[in-house]
């Protein structure tokens, strides 16, 4: 088990372990415990949010030999459960539409589906990235969904539900997965680091969570990197946010905050020099701009609705950093802040095509300082 990547090692094996997606878990577990299973489910939503995990859990629960009526959790001990967990069940068929466009698989599925499951109650078909099925395969699937045999359950999973044919969507019970929030991701990372017996401060987990884009899988991969790296620090030391900022390629919030000061104090030469010095030191300007935009956004939101430090929009800042941000937000006029934000958003776009990466930023600085303060 030791060198399994975290997200495989810790794939939830019970519904209770799933973080977020409450309404989906609720509806599925109700269906399982009451025996009212649909024949076709559609799981749509961003990557790494639990679609495959819940599809496999469903397969396990409906076929578990120890599960009693009225219960929903699989036992994870019976032959059916263990076969599924070890990936060798004959009655759980996973088709990856992305790799083969699924023609042969779906044909096989159409021919094979009439046969009852070998050992279990249900045959479960999980079709991943099903928006990528070829037209023929999708039509074949549609035929099958029109009259699914009572022993079949389909779970179609996709990150791009808008690319699915409507006739397929309308034959499925649809669940929309959502991105996970920063506190939810932190909760998950805490559980894993505890199981891995590593000491890591909350601020470090917060940094990881903030950089996962709402995907638990991505957060677990980042944690993996951090743990590999911290192996070089020695076991006993606690991993701190400071230690991993570079590793995650993160831009120091202090740099962004200092730059924001130059903007609010109308110090164009200082701002431009500052940027050039950073570039010489090898700072990734694209990352810097991203961080800056996020920072200015926080300032704007803070100014308009006055959120608290615990708010997820703000999380990732220390108490001192938050106080500094608050001060900057109140120093700026709302209109100026809004315009500056727009200028740097534009600059971010232009940077991709500019032969001199800092030029769009420099222009934005100059424009920003021309904004009239009423
Ligand atoms: N809601 C969740 N609760 C707990 N762990 C999760 C959740 N979502 C994802 N994970 C973790 O991330 C890993 C990957 O999740 P999963 O394979 O279910 O994602 P997915 O939605 O199918 O993503 P993709 O669209 O990329 O296939 C899981 O093994 C698990 O460790
Ligand atoms: Mg998946
Ligand atoms: Zn079981």
General description of the model:
- This protein is of the alpha/beta class and 374 residues long.
- It has three domains: 6-176, Rossmann fold (3-Layer(aba) Sandwich), CATH 3.40.50.300; 182-245, Helicase, Ruva Protein, domain 3 (Orthogonal Bundle), CATH 1.10.8; 253-370, Up-down Bundle (Zinc Finger, Delta Prime, domain 3).
- It contains 18 helices and five strands.
- It has helices at residues 6-9, 22-34, 51-63, 79-85, 97-100, 103-112, 135-146, 166-169, 182-195, 202-210, 216-230, 241-245, 253-264, 268-280, 285-305, 319-331, 334-351, 359-370, and strands at residues 40-44, 92-96, 123-128, 152-158, 173-176.
- A five-stranded parallel beta sheet has the order 2-3-4-1-5.
- Strand 3, helix 7 and strand 4 form a beta-alpha-beta unit.
- Helix 3 runs antiparallel to helix 4 and helix 13 runs parallel beside helix 16.
- The longest helix is centred in the C-terminal third of the chain and has 21 residues, at 285-305.
- Which kinds of small molecule does this entry bind, naming each only once? adenosine-5'-triphosphate, magnesium ion, zinc ion
- At CATH level 2, the architecture of the largest domain is 3-Layer(aba) Sandwich
The computed structural class is alpha/beta
The main pleated sheet reads as: 5 strands, parallel
Overall structural domain count? 3
End-to-end CA span? 64 Å
Annotated CATH homologous superfamily of the largest domain = P-loop containing nucleotide triphosphate hydrolases
Overall form? elongated
**What is the C-alpha radius of gyration, as a whole number of Å?**
25 Å
What's the total number of strands? 5
Order of helices and strands: HHEHHEHHEHEHEHHHHHHHHHH
Unreliable parts: none
């Amino acid at each position: 088990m030791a060198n399994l990547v975290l997200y495989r090692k810790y794939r939830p094996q019970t519904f209770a372990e799933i973080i977020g997606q409450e309404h989906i878990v609720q509806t599925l577990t109700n269906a399982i415990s009451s025996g009212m299973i649909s024949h076709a489910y559609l799981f749509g939503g961003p990557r790494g949010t639990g679609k495959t995990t819940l599809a496999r859990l469903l397969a396990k629960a409906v076929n578990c030999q120890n599960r009693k009526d009225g219960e929903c959790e699989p036992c994870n001990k019976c032959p059916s459960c263990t076969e599924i967990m070890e990936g060798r069940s004959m009655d759980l068929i996973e088709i990856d539409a992305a790799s083969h466009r699924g023609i042969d698989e779906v044909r096989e599925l159409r021919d094979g589906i009439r046969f009852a499951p070998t050992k279990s109650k249900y045959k479960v078909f999980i079709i991943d990235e099903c928006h990528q099925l070829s037209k023929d395969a999708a039509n074949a699937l549609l035929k099958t969904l029109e009259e699914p045999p009572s022993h079949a359950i389909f779970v179609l999973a996709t990150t791009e539900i808008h690319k699915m044919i409507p006739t397929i969507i309308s034959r499925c019970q649809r669940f929309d997965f959502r991105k996970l929030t920063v506190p939810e991701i932190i909760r998950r990372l805490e559980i894993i680091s505890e199981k891995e017996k590593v000491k890591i401060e909350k601020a470090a987990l917060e940094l990881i969570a903030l950089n996962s884009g709402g995907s638990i899988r991505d957060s677990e991969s980042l944690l993996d990197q951090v743990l590999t790296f911290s192996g070089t620090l020695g076991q006993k030391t606690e991993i701190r946010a400071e230690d991993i900022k570079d590793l995650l390629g993160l831009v120091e919030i202090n740099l962004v905050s200092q730059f924001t000061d130059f903007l609010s104090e109308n110090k164009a030469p200082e701002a431009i020099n500052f940027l050039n010095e950073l570039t010489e030191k090898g700072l990734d300007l694209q990352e810097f701009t991203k961080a800056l935009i996020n920072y200015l956004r926080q300032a704007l939101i803070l100014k308009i609705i006055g959120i608290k430090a615990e708010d997820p929009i703000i999380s990732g800042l220390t108490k001192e950093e938050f106080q500094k941000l608050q001060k900057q937000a109140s120093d700026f006029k709302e209109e100026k802040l809004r315009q500056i934000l727009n200028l740097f958003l534009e600059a971010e776009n232009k940077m991709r095509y500019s032969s001199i990466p800092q030029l769009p930023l420099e222009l934005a600085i100059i424009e920003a300082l021309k904004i009239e303060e009423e």
